[in-house]
Design a protein that fits this description.
The structure is a homotetramer. The first copy, chain A, is an alpha/beta fold. The first copy, chain A, contains five helices and seven strands, in the order βαβαββαβαββα.
Chain lengths: ~150, ~150, ~150, ~150
C-alpha cells in the first residue's frame, strides 16, 4: 500500500463548489485503489475523506492538535501530532504524490515543501508558482496524472 | 476506530523470546478489534505488527526517517515523519493506551511521555518506574487490562 | 530582546552577489540592535550571520540536523533540532519579522508559513506570491521596513 | 560556544528549596562560562536562568508554545517551537551535557532521551533509573562533573 498514499492538501474552510470538487477527487482516488493522507480537519480535507469513504477507500488524517477526536468524521486513521502546522511536513513526506486543491497560504507552504522534497505535485485550481506543478481542471484528470507517477 | 488505537512500544532489536511475546500481543490486540500504532521498525515493533496481521488487524508505523519504505513489512499505514525520535511523542499522543514490552532507554522515554500525558500504561517485562504502570506477565493479561480503559 | 529577533531566510547555496547582500543585511540588522535567527547553514544564512557578527550582533542558527557542529562559523547559538526542514517553522514562529532573500522552494515554504502565521514579511529579490510581502531592493531599505513593525 | 551548552532539566513547578538549588546551579554554570539551555518556563527552568543571569551568563529557552513571550523573564534567547513537549528533544540534542534537577515524568522523559542519545547526564536529587547518571548532591559538585565532559 505504501506506494499508493496520495496527499490531498487544501484549506480547512472552503465554499461548496470546492468541497464538492475535493469530494469527487477523494472518490476517484479511492476507486483507483489509493489511500488518502491529509490534515484531517474540515474543508478540502473533509471533502476528500468523505469522497474516499463513499468509494470504500482508506483515509489518514495527520492532525495539528493533541487529540485524535479533532479529526473529521471521515478519517479512518487519525494521527495526533501536537506539532501544529509542523504536521504538514509529515503529510507531504508520507505521500508519493501531492494533489493541491484551491487553498491559501497553508496550502502554498505544503506545496512548496513538496516541491522542495521533489515530490510530484498535481494542482486543481491552486497556486501557480512553478511549472513543476501539473495543472489539471477536473478530479478525473488529476487522478489520471497521479497514476503516471505510481507504477 | 479512534478509541481503539493502542501503542505498542519496545526496542528495535530484541531476542526471539521477546519478539514472540510482541507477536502474541499484536495478535491478541487485533483479535479484540484494536488497531496498533508503533514506531514501524524492527524488534518489538515488527513482532507486534506481524501478530496483528495474522489476526487481520490494522497496523500503523510512525517512522523516525523520511521514507515510508523504512517500515517493516507488516505495517499497513506507514507515516514518514523525518523527526527522528521526536516521532515517539506522536505515537503516544495518538494511542488511547500504551503497552510497553521490555525495552531500553527509548522505551523508557516513551513510557515517561505517556505518564506525563496521563495515558494509561500497561507493562510487560518493562521498566518499573511508577506504580501507575499496570504490570502484567502475559499478552492475554495485558490485553485484558487494556480493555478496561477503552469502553 | 524577544521583540527584536528577525528571521533571515534564503537558500543554503547562493552566488557571490546574493551572499554579499545577505551579509550587508545581517550587518544592518545588528547595527540596529536586532538578533538574527536563521537556519544556521551556508549561503544566505551564513552571509547574514557573518554580517551580524561584523557589527557585534547575536546570531541563532536553528539546524535541521542532530549536531550543533553543523552550524556555520558565525552562529553564536546553534539549536540542533533533528527535525529536518520541520525546523523552518521554529525559525518563523520565533521571529517578529521575516526577511526573505532570493531563495528557492525552501524559502517559498518558509515565506508561506510566515504569511500563514500573519508574521510581517519583507522581501529582497524573492518570491512574489502575495501583496503582503513588502518588496524592497536594498538591505538598508529592508531594515527600514522591519523597524516599522517592532516599536 | 557550541561545546559549552548545558541543558538544565526539571519541573515547571517546584518548591522553594529546589528553586534555590536550580538558581545556584545556574550561577555556577555561568561562572564557569557555560550557556544554559532549558525549556524556558517556570520552576527549575526559571531558577536556573535566574542564577545564570546573576553571574552574567547566556540563557536559551526552548518553549513548547507558539509565543516567545511565554518565556520566563530570565531567558535571553527564547525559541518558540509550537511542538509541545516535543521540544524536549531539541533541548537534549543541543546540549553537550544534561543536568537533571528533581523532576517528575517530564524530566524522566528528557533524562531517558539523553541516555538514548548517549549524552552525559548528571543528576541532582533526580530519578535513579540508570548507573549512567552521575549522581551529585550539590550544584558545585554537579558543575565539577560537567566540566569533565567538556574539554
Amino acid at each position: 500500500m505504501r506506494n499508493r498514499i496520495i496527499a490531498v492538501i487544501g484549506a480547512g474552510q472552503c465554499d461548496q463548489r470546492i468541497y464538492k470538487m475535493a469530494e469527487a477527487l477523494g472518490k476517484e482516488l479511492a476507486r483507483n485503489g489509493f489511500t488518502i493522507i491529509c490534515g484531517g480537519l474540515g474543508g478540502v480535507m473533509e471533502g476528500a475523506c468523505k469522497g474516499a469513504k463513499e468509494a470504500g477507500g482508506l483515509t489518514i488524517g495527520v492532525l495539528p492538535g493533541e487529540q485524535v477526536h479533532d479529526a473529521n468524521p471521515f478519517v479512518d486513521v487519525p494521527i495526533a501530532t501536537g506539532m501544529g502546522i509542523g504536521r504538514n511536513i509529515v503529510i507531504v513526506r508520507t505521500a508519493q504524490v501531492v494533489v493541491a486543491v484551491d487553498g491559501s497560504f497553508g496550502t502554498l507552504a505544503e506545496l512548496a515543501f513538496a516541491l522542495q522534497l521533489n515530490k510530484p505535485v498535481v494542482g486543481l485550481e491552486t497556486w501557480d508558482v512553478s511549472e513543476k506543478i501539473v495543472k489539471t481542471s477536473t478530479p478525473v484528470e488529476a487522478v489520471n496524472e497521479i497514476i503516471k507517477y505510481v507504477e
